[in-house]
Amino acid sequence: MNELTKAAIKKILERQSFEPGRPGPILLNTEALMDALATGVPTTSKYFALPIRCLAELNERLETPIAHKMKRPQLKSFPTLAGLFLLLRASGLAIGETKPKRVVLIDPEMREKWNDLNSTEQYMSLVDTWWTRVNWTILGERDRFGGQMRADTRDLYYQLSRQANTVIVDSFNTFYRYETRVAAALLEQFGWIKVAYASQAEEGKIAEMQSVETTEFGDAMFQTLDGIVDSRIRNESAVQKELKSLVPAWKNSLLPAERRFREGRYKLKLSWLKVWRQLETPATTSLADVTALLLAAFDFDQDHLYQLEYRDASGREVLVVDPQYGDGDLLADEVQLGEVPLDEGDSMELLFDFGDCWRFTITIESVDESDTDNFEPVITASKGEAPEQYGFDDY
């Protein structure tokens, strides 16, 4: 990759059109997938992933379908669909619902916001989502620090840009990894690279990538965004701050709906295996206090670090850490129960003591929003004897 000057980058971006189909098919394919999911598609996936029975049909809806000869393809079989799904979920355009049945669908309010944007704003909003909000946990994969997708994309682009000419995939072992193929598919969708696929697929497989080539536009975008980490204030992300002077038509962004603070009396089920305690507590209770109440209810000493995990509305795994640990975006003493984006029946996991790894489940059984009075938390029911925190070997 030739290092571009700021003047060269500015010139490249100024002359680039962001109409549907340019610089890549991302807008056309986003619309196609939103149309397909508009009224909801039933799914059995705990992550609301696209169901197996729909994948072949959804692939055919894309601007350039990928040839395949698979009877029951997995989402991993179609890197373009996987990448588009990650974008739709991370942006808030695609949501999961469990009642009356489990479906993945397009949020009508978010699509209305999408339709209000011009094509440049739509394209750049998806770039912003890709660079700052997409992570692998949306699909149930490991993404310990939430930035692995960005790291995978950077690594791939760096490797491609070191090649003098078009890369022949057969001699480029990097594409063995599923994560790399999804990163390549998204780079192609955004027009940062060009990918050539085989016209035919082997039995039971998807058509292989044959060659990959970087583009001048991709070089300009990559050099502009390479140093950006996940940083966002409500009305402007680090991506928009970096690009707004280069892309003046980008004035508005697609922002996920803000969840209101949910007041009320929370009834929580605190579980370890089949042993449980029922806790009633106000919405203003911090997650640090919920943890302390749980540990007290199970007669545990509170002398070890802990962390809590739950999934937000986009399906991303959110980590809330012990204030004493102090290394994380969210600290348990700064997050109140009413701020947590979970509904009745949803759960968060508590990992206590990183040595012995005690795992508890905190389930929201009900929220009485009519009861907004402040009151002392209370254990109202229990079942089973608490486990012994320390065995003989601990003494």
Q: Which key terms come to mind for this protein?
A:
395 residues, alpha+beta, Structural Genomics Hypothetical 15.5 Kd Protein In mrcA-pckA Intergenic Region, Chain A, 2 domains, 19% strand
Quick recap of the structure?
This protein is an alpha+beta fold and 395 residues long.
What is the secondary structure topology, with strand pairs?
Layout: H1 6-14, H2 26-37, E1 41-42, H3 52-61, H4 79-91, E2 94-97, E3 103-106, H5 108-115, H6 119-132, H7 148-161, E4 167-168, H8 178-189, E5 193-197, E6 209-214, H9 216-225, H10 238-243, E7 265-272, E8 275-282, H11 287-297, E9 306-311, E10 317-321, E11 330-331, E12 347-352, E13 358-368, E14 378-383
Helix pairs in contact: 1-9, 4-6, 4-8, 7-8
Q: Could you please describe the fold and organization of this structure?
A:
It comes from Roseimaritima ulvae. This is Plasmid pRiA4b ORF-3-like protein. Residues 268-388 form the Plasmid pRiA4b Orf3-like domain. The chain is an alpha+beta fold. The chain folds into two domains: 6-243, no CATH class; 265-394, MM3350-like (Structural Genomics Hypothetical 15.5 Kd Protein In mrcA-pckA Intergenic Region, Chain A, Roll). Helices cover 30% and strands 19% of the residues. The protein contains eleven helices and 14 strands. It has helices spanning 6-14, 26-37, 52-61, 79-91, 108-115, 119-132, 148-161, 178-189, 216-225, 238-243, 287-297, and strands spanning 41-42, 94-97, 103-106, 167-168, 193-197, 209-214, 265-272, 275-282, 306-311, 317-321, 330-331, 347-352, 358-368, 378-383. The strands form three sheets. Strands 11-10-9-12-13-7-8-14 form an eight-stranded mixed sheet, covered by helices on one side. Strands 1-3-2 form a three-stranded antiparallel sheet.
